[in-house]
Amino acid sequence: MAEQTKLNVSEPVEAVETYEFDPIQGYPMLNWKGKRPFRSTQYYPAQLKETYGEEVEDWTNKIYWGDNLQVMSHLLKTYRGKIDLIYIDPPFDSKADYKKRIALKGKKVENDRTAFEEKQYTDIWTNDEYLQFMYERLILMKELLADNGSIYLHCDPTMGHYLRVLMDEVFGEDKFRNEIAWCYKSMSQATQWFPRKHDVLLFYTKSDRWTFNADDVRVPFSKESLGRHGSSWRSGNEEERAAIHARGKVVEDWWDMPMLNSMSEERLGYPTQKPIVLLERIIKASSNPGDLVFDCFMGSGTTQAVAVKLGRRFIGADINLGAVETTTKRLTHLSAEIRESDTYRLSSGGGG
Q1: Is 293 helix (H, G, I), strand (E, B) or coil?
Q2: 3-state SS of the chain: helix, strand, coil percent to 5?
Q3: Is 18 helix (H, G, I), strand (E, B) or coil?
């Protein structure tokens, strides 16, 4: 594998020119028009928009508002090699404008409607722009990731094949752990191909040692599996007991989880919101209580909310102010729920 130069943080940014690639045999590289190396970055005083929760051992959870390239350049000075888990749900190049429907109470607008659509962000790119955009950000994420850290990149079939090659190039093909299919059901009008009903999670690690809590992501065995092994289990066959763990099996690399629809109680009105159960599985599997979780395409704040529930620290960032506002409101409500739950537990004599 090619030796990778450590990214430098400098006060004035160094001028870097496009160079011709000289591929190394056996080392995967993705090329595109205008590909530029990213070997140094300028330190930016990123805008810390919100902090969440009480300070614990000199730590307060943080939310930044701004371009995540600038936010990560800012974070490098303090958090290089200190983030335990990164989850990102970046733009998919879906060729769509994502909008949020806003109600207007007691107000009248020119078209006499009581609601309008606020654009959250545009997901329309040229292929070359998109790949350069992701390339630069993945390099910074690798710098921020701890030596035993993991990263999950959420994508779909639109760009997933390019992003896997890009992840191989940045993190190393030997650091690939899983390509996970998140499968879901919804209405489809497709008649000329099979309905596209899965997203992809690309799971890579920084090194050859990483956190993976297998027992925290077990699921029940199917009735068919229990039927095949049930007699051996009851008879005390130790080999079979090892095969049939009392807490179920470690979930495979395809996850059958419903996506959020308009009737979901979790729905916050953010167009790309992901379900809590999806982030719970990732955070439980690849981090421990007290670990630092980072999501710089924060969206509705599902990563941050789940991190709080599971006792992890977090840093979040998003260029969209609407995402920051949605996340902040969500965390405020979550904090109130936690306080109410704690109060009830104490008043009813519950412990710990």
Answers
A1: strand
A2: 30, 25, 40
A3: coil
pLDDT band at 62 (very low <50, low <70, confident <90, very high): very high
DSSP labels, 301-318? -HHHHHHHHTT-EEEEEE
Region of residue 347 (phi > 0: left; psi between -120 and 50: alpha; otherwise: beta)? alpha
Query: Which residue in the block uniquely carries the two structure tokens 């095949």?
Result: 228
| Residue pointed to by tokens 């709080």 | 308
Strand, coil or helix: 102: strand
Distance CA 42, CA 169 (A): 23
Q: What is the C-alpha to C-alpha distance for residues 129 and 242, in angstroms, rounded to an integer?
A: 50
∠ Cα 35 72 58 (to 5°): 165
Type of residue at 324: V
Whole-structure pTM value: 0.82
Q: How many CB atoms lie within 10 A of CB 241?
A: 14
- Distance CA(241)–CA(145), nearest Å, equals 38
User: Residue 4 is which amino acid?
Assistant: Q
Q: List all residues 6 or more positions away from 36 whose beta carbon is below 8 Å from its beta carbon.
A: 16, 17, 18, 19, 132
User: In whole angstroms, what is the distance from residue 105 CA to residue 96 CA?
Assistant: 28
**Amino acid identity of 33?**
K
Query: How many Cβ atoms from other residues are within 10 Å of residue 183's Cβ?
Result: 14
pLDDT tens, residue by residue, 88-97: 999 865 455 5
